[in-house]
Design brief:
Layout: H1 2-25, E1 29-35, E2 48-56, E3 63-74, E4 77-80, E5 82-83, E6 90-91, E7 96-104, E8 113-122, E9 125-134, E10 139-144, E11 147-149, E12 156-164, E13 170-178, E14 182-185, E15 188-193, E16 198-207, E17 214-222, E18 226-234, E19 236-240, E20 257-263, E21 268-278, E22 282-290, E23 309-315, E24 332-337, E25 344-347, E26 361-368, E27 371-379, E28 393-401, E29 411-414, E30 428-432
Parallel strand pairs: 11-18, 19-21, 19-30
Antiparallel strand pairs: 1-2, 2-7, 3-4, 3-6, 3-8, 5-7, 8-9, 10-12, 12-16, 13-15, 13-17, 14-16, 17-18, 20-21, 21-22, 22-27, 23-24, 23-28, 24-25, 25-26, 26-27, 28-29, 28-30
Length: about 425
């Protein structure tokens, strides 16, 4: 009899666990919809939007409901929602209940994708749902092109449109600023944009004097509520002349130079300069770098502490930057390497560090003070779809890996795109001169 009682107790416990497991496994479901009253957008930054939570009780028992909540993270800050006092407090079996919550996302959330973390306590179990949400900015700013290549000889035009997503007219200031060295006209606009309306504008941008080749930035601020930016490229100019590749800079004295620099968060430091020239057969590149930068020798597997120098070329077939990014079939990257017969320029894997053996263009190495001079010629036959000529453009990136002890940095670039963000859109345009 005792064994039967023990067995009955075990069965009761197992049945109880099974029932509890079934209840735990069937907590119901939670869904959400988001609306902004009177506007055609689910959620607008800075405006109150309604989050309607619907809890479906999928069990066969009534459930008490409490602790309805919605929150989300925007730029690392938690934003809570207020709950409508009329939220359902209970729900019958196989029925649904709702709560309406109000949440106001900060203006900084405009144009971003956030996730709403929704939850409700149903019969002692917390039911959760993560709802992705695209937040409409108060003002939608479009800049075309978003990457503008300047003309060294005169101004270029940037198109801008501003859409007012609110249900009332906006009257206020639109300010346009840029890096030092750029002239922007107009720099301020008094805007009157109708509710749910659009206004177009034209901005003239030009170098304000002699501008160093590289990347610059233009910022637009509408009423202190929405901001946008565009990349402005100041191209380098490749001199139209045949260069003797001899490791000397005698022929480069009248050619515009670019800086090979690094930014440490507060200031730029420079390790060298780069020059470009071209003729009908080659594009010529001269690089001056600190003598601590030495070339590796892949043939002897020698890892020189000085690192490596890379050159990459993106032929701009249509004279414009590719907005999609990514290396294309006609892009080329090269590494300067040492060898038994002197320095050479070898094609590398695009976006990688391993050195290929199928090309080896000559490199002349010289000295100037405490710097090494590297000169090379890359034949146009490397770019079969590009027809060089005055006014045509290519984009070039130069990477210098310096000794780790050099000025607290070991990666320096002309433009960018070869270290960190591997992207030819960060190469600097080079205009073939007349």
């Amino acid at each position: 009899m005792k064994s039967i009682a023990v067995l009955s107790l075990i069965m009761a416990v197992l049945v109880g666990l099974a029932v509890g497991w079934c209840l735990a496994a069937d907590p119901g479901t939670l869904a959400a919809t988001v609306t902004t009253e009177g506007l055609p957008f689910p959620c607008i930054a800075g405006a109150a939007c309604k989050v309607t939570l619907e809890y479906a009780n999928t069990s066969d028992k009534d459930a008490d409901l409490k602790d309805w909540s919605v929150s989300c993270m925007v730029d690392g800050n938690k934003v809570e929602a207020s709950v409508d006092p009329g939220a359902s407090e209970s729900v019958q079996a196989s029925k649904s209940a709702t709560a309406v919550l109000t949440i106001t996302l900060p203006e900084s959330a405009g144009g971003k994708d956030v996730v709403l973390a929704c939850s409700v306590n149903a019969a002692g179990q917390v039911v959760k749902a993560d709802i992705p949400l695209s937040v409409t900015p108060i003002f939608e700013i479009t800049l075309l092109p978003q990457r503008l290549i300047l003309d060294p000889a005169g101004p270029k035009t940037l198109g801008m449109s501003v859409i007012n997503h609110m249900d009332k007219q906006f009257t206020g200031k639109v300010t346009i600023t840029a890096n030092g060295g750029l002239s922007v006209d107009p720099s301020e606009i008094t805007a009157n944009i109708d509710a749910l309306g659009l206004e177009p504008y034209m901005i003239s941008i030009a170098p304000a004097g002699k501008l160093v080749p590289g990347h610059y930035t233009l910022w637009v601020d509408v009423g202190g509520k929405s901001k946008e930016w565009a990349m402005i490229d100041m191209p380098a100019v490749a001199a139209s002349e045949t260069v003797k590749v001899d490791g000397k800079l005698d022929e480069w004295k009248d050619v515009q130079s670019g800086s090979i620099s690094s930014y440490n968060g507060s200031k730029y430091s420079t390790i060298g300069s780069v020059w470009f020239a071209y003729d009908t057969k080659n594009v010529y590149v001269a690089i001056e770098a600190d003598e601590g930068v030495q070339l590796p020798n892949p043939d002897t597997k020698t890892d020189v502490p000085g690192g490596m120098i890379e050159i990459a070329v993106d032929p701009l077939i249509d004279g414009a930057k590719d907005t999609k990014g990514g290396f294309k079939d006609d892009d080329r990257a090269y590494a300067l390497v040492a060898g038994p017969n002197g320095a050479g320029l070898r094609r590398t894997q695009i976006g990688g560090k391993s050195v290929g053996q199928d090309t080896n263009f000559p490199v002349a190495v010289g000295k100037r003070g405490a710097s090494n001079i590297y000169e090379t010629a890359i034949p146009w036959t490397e770019f079969t779809s590009f027809d060089p000529g005055p006014g045509k453009m290519i984009a070039i990136g130069v990477l210098v890996n310096a000794p780790s002890s050099y000025n607290l940095h070991n990666t320096y670039e002309f433009g960018g795109g070869l270290a960190g963000n591997i992207d030819p859109r960060l190469f600097v345009p080079v205009v073939l001169g007349k």
